[in-house]
Amino acid sequence: MTETDQSDTVSDRYLKREVLGEGTYGVVYKAIDTKTGQTVAIKKIRLGKQKEGVNFTALREIKLLKELKDPNIIELTDAFPHEGNLHLVFEFMETDLEAVIRDRNIFLSPADIKSYFQMTLKGLAFCHRKWVLHRDMKPNNLLIGPNGQLKLADFGLARLFGSPDRRFTHQVFARWYRAPELLFGAKQYASGVDVWAAACIFAELLLRRPFLPGTSDIDQLGKIFAAFGTPTPSQWPDMVYLPDYVEYQYVPAPPLRSLFPMASGDALDLLSKMFTYDPKARISVQRALEHWYFSSAPLPTDPVKLPRPAPKSRAPDFDPQDGPTVLSPTRKSRRIMAGPERFEGNSNQEEKIDEHAGEVRQAVGDIAGKNEQVPMSVDFSIFGTKPQSTPTINSADSCHLKRELDREFQHDE
Ligand code: AMP
User: Fold this and answer.
1) 142: Cβ below 6 Å to ligand 1?
2) Annotated binding-site members for ATP
């Protein structure tokens, strides 16, 4: 990519439209990419307010999404810092699985449920193959595109896993989707936590309401035990060694069929394998995808034919009379931000952005290298140095970011 190309990609590229939603770490806007004419979603994440000056959520999301290119995972197409915020640009998605489940006008056939759930597991299987735990699986993080494709989104809580001694925080997932080992305070856990959450999503698709809506962590365990019976040490030998383990009064499991009266025998069999107490005995996502539930009739609905909520009536996307709200840095601010002093300790907001921009540049670098069609709009000229043609996270001048990320990934809490 040439210098000219780089400056072309930043100016006046995105026209900001309405707010789409608000996540834990920032507002998400709809926007038009004037370069491609496509609608995109831009997540605005505040930079520079963290204790150590780096917003790990954003960097983590960029770093992991760079590695996760799959039809069932949201695509990060661009990232740039602007006015104290980092902007992550994603492909635009029309709705999410929560909206589908809640919409009383939608009838979900067994084949539709199978299709939505299969796409969920395919995206998750890809994460696990790349040693990434999502850790925030829930219906409103499963976005649905115009062609019915379901994609995993919101990787702000995601982490690499696989090292035997790695310790994590157990405060992950929305409570209703939290596996019993997390509720008992496990700090060493693996892909089974995502399997449990996926099983809760499957149950929610079948029931059309949250399956285990606990009101506190204790109540959550109570609801799990009421559904599947209190686990015994013979069922789950490691349970008694978990940090927050407490003995619960024994209750027997009701028949699974009584909880899901409309589900097929195949669906119940898969559910029981995913809702296995002992994470070591719980089915993997890959094995779940190979379960006969997916190959038996009715086969999963073609995604384009899946029922989705009626689109809300909105103002037209792109009126050329509208004054554009430019999200990328203007030429003027690029000039102000440039300069050799940018890495010297300075609390000035713009210089802070510039400092983070260096990290962002490194974190997103690979996408810029691989995606010629939709080039990254991070303006490398504002950082004073010309980037390598295909920068990687391991390159010499990315030591700072690498150190920060390594520290973060090693010491999760
Ligand atoms: P998040 O911070 O990723 O949880 O996003 C917050 C909300 O913004 C979501 O619940 C969605 O309503 C919306 N949103 C996020 N990403 C997209 C996207 N790619 N397309 C459309 N809406 C999105």
Assistant:
1) no
2) 20-28, 43-44
